[in-house]
Amino acid sequence: MKILVLNCGSSSIKYQLFNMEDRHVIAKGGIEKLGMKGSFLKHKTEDGRTIVFEGEILDHKAGVEYVLGILTSEKYGCLKSFDEIDAVGHRVVHGGEYFSSSEFVTDEVIDALVKCTDLAPLHNPPNIKGINAMEELIPGIPQVGVFDTAFHQTMDAKAYMYGIPYVLYKKYGIRRYGFHGTSHRYVSARACEILGRDYNSTRIISCHLGNGASIAAIKNGKSVDTSMGFTPLEGLIMGTRSGDLDVGAATFIMEKEDIGMKTLNTLLNKHSGMLGLTGISSDMREIREASQNGNEKALEAIDIYCYKIKKYIGSYIAAMGGVDAILFTGGIGEFATYVRENVCSDLEFLGVELDVDKNASVYGDEGIVSKEGSRVKVMIVPTDEELMIALDTEKIVKEKVKA
């Protein structure tokens, strides 16, 4: 079975084509600056070639058509025709309270996604456009939606409710949803495979650390809490996002700076986080370099970043009554050895014993970096959300065919 995975953003389309017989990627790439001047498609072939096509790509339908065109082109393609694509899996950011698992796309599913648009106005519309474009170009092709929020729908009310009037929750759906669910689900399951443990009887804390960052508490295969909330702004300090912030501080800033809600939203999402703290960059590599050169703001910002992660880990250990494994994934989680060391320091009393030498030697690969006798395993597990989407799509389409 060949499955095309699409991730449609407001001005981009990322894609990967999988051969599910051995789960390898046949081709992948992406379109940038969709609908803007200077749009282009970058395509990577199975044999390692990278080809860039520049041209006017006006909308998502044209973008998807470009993707299908390159996949079936005589010179750079890997398919003879569209018929070789058995199904399409879509990354969909927000499923609200409608979806607790991936779903075969139907008219009813589309209707529910439209209802979730207010919850993710920048993400759900392009996700829907990608689904509609594929249906127009290859009518009747099986499509599956895989939702970032679905994995966290197992949280109890005590974890997802805010202390606001209940009527606002019922009226507008204001609650904690969480994101990065596909990543947390993949790495937690993969960790249990590596450890040879039963996923349904293991307590895991998954740290997805990239420019966007979140932590999930996963108990017996289910998400019981996560750091992101109603939006991806809540939780950890991130590249440009503030993370947890007293609402009173936000309204104070509005008053003192004489700014409106739109400007505040931009401030907290685009100009805060590590960029705001350091004034250097949102890229942790550049901040790390500055800290090694003695920049005090960079040193302090890294300590603040790691401290917030440590606090969440401690609270989730309490929430689950213990922990069996702590996972690090994402660009920072997989490569920043100093972040892992800082976060795990002084947690020995909880059974977390990092092996400093192992931690320094595992760089972007799978690996256990805790000491041999550590009661809690500390692990690096690179995420693969696209593969998870492809696996869900394969499973759901096969079940649909059997039915």
TrEMBL record:
Mg(2+). Can also accept Mn(2+). PROSITE patterns: ACETATE_KINASE_1, ACETATE_KINASE_2. Gene3D superfamilies: 3.30.420.40. The active site is at D148. Signal peptide: none annotated. Belongs to the acetokinase family. This is Acetate kinase. It comes from Mangrovibacterium diazotrophicum. The gene is ackA.
